[in-house]
């Protein structure tokens, strides 16, 4: 059976931190679906179309990577896509606290799906989409935190 992972997130915007996680996860899975969440609770600063296009501009040539949007529960999306793994990145203790609860709740909702965590590489552990958005909003240059394909 092929190993399919879903990498869910807001990706608002997709950063070098996300890219580093994908790069390291690629040898572990046969297929990775980057799942851009349509999350009603979180105010999204960039449209779903924009967020998907940016990611597509990076990976359109990679046969193992697929980009999709989704609504609702991540475990339901995984089931629909036949994915047995949820991929997440961990930067620090705050991420851990948040991610631990989500992973355990997801496990209760669907025991067949495992969440796999990768600890960030030191070069990208300080990068967050929130701070990138703040820099851009205040007229700064956030290029160094973004993959070269993304021009905001
Ligand atoms: P969410 O709104 O679901 O947290 P994000 O787009 O902020 O979505 O993040 C998606 C995933 O990428 C999360 O697992 C998050 O911890 C991880 N992530 C975000 N930034 C980095 C980074 N710099 N290095 C590694 N993982 C990261």
In the sheet with the most strands, the strands line up as 3-2-1-4-5
CATH architecture: 3-Layer(aba) Sandwich
The largest β sheet comes out as:
5 strands, parallel
Counted by DSSP, the helix tally is 5
Order of helices and strands: EHEHEHEHEH
Total number of β-strand segments?
5
For CATH, the homologous superfamily is named as HUPs
Give the class from helix and strand content and strand pairing. Answer: alpha/beta
In whole angstroms, the N-to-C terminal distance is 39 Å
Total tally of structural domains: 1
Which hetero compounds are present in the coordinates? Answer: adenosine-5'-diphosphate
The name CATH uses for the topology is Rossmann fold
CATH class: Alpha Beta
Which range best describes the helical content: under 10%, 10-25%, 25-40%, 40-55%, 55-70% or over 70%? 25-40%
Return Rg in Å: 15 Å
Question: What does this protein look like?
Answer:
A five-stranded parallel β-sheet has the order 3-2-1-4-5, with helices on both faces. The chain has helices at residues 16-25, 48-59, 74-80, 93-109, 129-137; strands at 4-9, 31-37, 65-70, 85-90, 114-119. The chain has a single domain, classed as 3-Layer(aba) Sandwich (Rossmann fold), CATH 3.40.50.620. The protein is built from five helices and five strands; from the N terminus they run E-H-E-H-E-H-E-H-E-H. The chain has 152 residues and is of the alpha/beta class. The longest helix has 17 residues, at 93-109. The model has no long low-confidence stretch (mean pLDDT 95). 36% of the residues lie in helices and 20% in strands. Adenosine-5'-diphosphate (ADP) binds at residues 9-11, 15, 17-18, 21, 88-89, 91, 95, 120, 124-125, 127-129.
